[in-house]
Amino acid sequence: MNPRxxxxxxxxxxxNCRNYAYAPRSVDFIDIHFIKGSEPEIREGKxxxxxxxxxxxxxxxxxxxAGKSSLRLLYSHGYITSGRDDLNLPFTPGLFETIKKDxxxxxxxxxxxxxxxxxxxxxxxxxxxxxxxxxxxxxxYFSWWLATVGLGLSYNSETRTTHGLLLxxxxxxxxxxxxxxxxxxxxxxxxxxxxGPYFLPLLICDLFAQEHATEIHKATKKVFGLERSIGMHDxxxxxxPSGVEDDEDFSMTSRKLNGQLSRLANYEKWVTxxxxxxxxxxxxxxxxxxxxxxxxxxxxxxxKEYATHLLHWNTDxxxxxxxxxxxxxxxxxxxxxxxAQRDNKLNIAIAAASxxxxxxxxxxxxxTMVFLPGAYIATLFSMNMFDWHxxxxxxxxxxxxxxxxxxxxxxxxxxxxxxxxWSKPWRK
Length: 428
Fold this sequence. Notes:
The protein is an alpha+beta fold and 428 residues long. Helix content is 53%, strand content 16%. It has a seven-stranded mixed β-sheet. It has a two-stranded parallel sheet with strand order 1-5. A two-stranded antiparallel sheet has the order 10-11. α6 (179-189) crosses α7. The longest helix has 79 residues, at 303-381. The radius of gyration is 41 Å and the shape is rod-shaped. The N and C termini lie far apart (83 Å).
C-alpha cells in the first residue's frame, strides 16, 4: 500500500470521528478586484479538480504584486442538511490544509465549523518584526433548519486583500436559491463595498436577519389565526386576520400553539446569538481604523454603521419573537382553561344525569319497599304449606312448615357472612 494513501485514509478516519468528513468535489470561486476610480472587476467560475484549486491559489501572487484591493472567495456546500454534526468538507485533507495555510486561517477552523452554535473567533496576523499586518475571522452561523453557514476569512492590510472560505447548505433547492446562492448574488450586487474584512460577515448577518424576519412574520400570522379560533382577542370586528375555522378542535389548536411556541423559541435563540455576535464584532478595535471604511463618501456603507444597523434590527426581531412567545403562552393557558371549562360542563351534565338516575332509582326503591312486604306475605301464603280449605283450624298450617325456616335462616346467615368477608368493612 502506498504510504501516502495510508496517511490520507487515516486522516479521513480521524476526521469522521470528529463529526466531519472529507468529500472532494468541485467548488466555486469569485474574485473581486478594485482599482481606484474604476468599477470593480468580477471573475467567477467553478474549480472541478484539486489541481484547479491549487492553480487558483497560486494566482494571488500576481494580483498582490499589482497592489490591487481584492476579495478572493472559495465557496461550496459544506453541510449535508442542517449544520448539526454534518460538516462535509469539499476537499481532500491535504488541499484543505493548503487552503488554510495560504489563506492564513487558524488551525482550529474545523472545530469552529462543526459546533452547533453561532461562534466568532478573531485573531491578528503579525509579520516577522511583530507588527500587525492583518487579521483572521472565523464565524459559524447556525440556524438549524433555516440555514447554516461557516466562514473563514483573512485580511492582509499591506496588500489590501481579503481571502475567504465559505461553506453552507446547498446553493439551490427545488430550483430556488437558498442562503448561499442568495449571498453570492448579494456579493456581486454590492461588489464595491467588499474591500474590507468585515463587510462579508455583516452581509451574512443581514441575510440571516431577513430570513429570521420572514419566519417570525409567518409565525405571527399563524398565531393571529389561532387566536381567532380560540376567540380570545381584542381585535375590532372585521379586522382580525382570517384563515382558521372558528369551530376548530381545542386539542388540535393546543398542538399548533405548542408547535409555534417551539419555533419562536428557536428564532429567539438564533436572533439572540446574532445579537451577541454583532456586539462582539462592534467591540473589535479595528472599527476605529480608517482602513475598514468601504466608502468615505457614504458613512452608511462603513462596517461600523452597517453593524449598528443590524444590531438594532436584530434587537427589534428579538422583541417581536419575545412578544409572540408571551402571546402564545397566554393562548395556551387560555386553551387549557377552555378545555377545563368544557370538561367541567361535561362533568356537570354527567352529574345532572346521575342525579336524575338516582332519583329514579330512589323512586323504584320506595315503591319496592312499599310492595315488598305484601308480595312476600302473598308468596308465603300461596305455598302448599297452607291449606285454607281445611275443615279444622289446626290443619291449615302444614306440619312440615318448619322445613322452610330451617332452610331459610341458615342460608340467610351464610349469605350475609360471605358478603361481610368479601367486603371487609373493618379495613376501611
